[in-house]
Amino acid sequence: MSCKSKGINFERTVKQYLKKQGCLVVRQAASLFPDIVAITPTNTEVVIGNTTFHGTFILIVECKASKGKLSSTEQTAMLGLAKKYHATALYAMRGRTLKDIVWERIVSTQQI
């Protein structure tokens, strides 16, 4: 499987996970930034990684199926979008398998 195929499959896995949590999810194809934008439902508890969201939140998610990290440019762009749209920036990376998702909340460019 090519790197591109792994990336697309992982983005779809993340999208399905968020949908199962009750989120409205849009995945941007063609390597657009960010990979996924999701809105959590009102009056529902949504658990993503070790973070629990209560109420409506906008989530912007950048996915990495490879072992790569987000660049400082990507982190800055994610934080800029989060600030502009009052959203939460998340980084989803592949765990041991394509079905495993490791989540990190992006709060600064020094983090990842």
How would you sum up this structure, described in words?
The mean pLDDT is 88. The strands form two sheets. Strands 1-2-5-6-7 form a five-stranded mixed sheet. Strands 3-4 form a two-stranded antiparallel sheet. It has a domain at 1-56 and 94-112. The relative contact order is 0.19. The chain is built from two helices and seven strands; from the N terminus they run H-E-E-E-E-E-H-E-E. By secondary structure, the protein is of the alpha+beta class. The chain has helices at 3-20, 72-85, and strands at 24-27, 36-39, 45-48, 51-54, 58-64, 88-94, 101-105. The N and C termini lie far apart (27 Å). A hairpin with an 8-residue loop joins strand 1 and strand 2 (36-39).
Biggest β-sheet, characterized?
5 strands, mixed
Q: Beta-strand percentage?
A: 25-35%
Structural class category: alpha+beta
Output mean pLDDT: 88
Strand order of the largest sheet: 1-2-5-6-7
Radius of gyration: 13 Å
Unreliable residue runs: none
- The end-to-end span amounts to 27 Å
**DSSP helical segment count:** 2
Gross morphology:
globular
Which range best describes the helical content: under 10%, 10-25%, 25-40%, 40-55%, 55-70% or over 70%? Answer: 25-40%
Number of strands: 7
Please trace the helix and strand order, writing H or E for each element: HEEEEEHEE
Task: Indicate the topology.
Layout: H1 3-20, E1 24-27, E2 36-39, E3 45-48, E4 51-54, E5 58-64, H2 72-85, E6 88-94, E7 101-105
Parallel strand pairs: 5-6
Antiparallel strand pairs: 1-2, 2-5, 3-4, 6-7
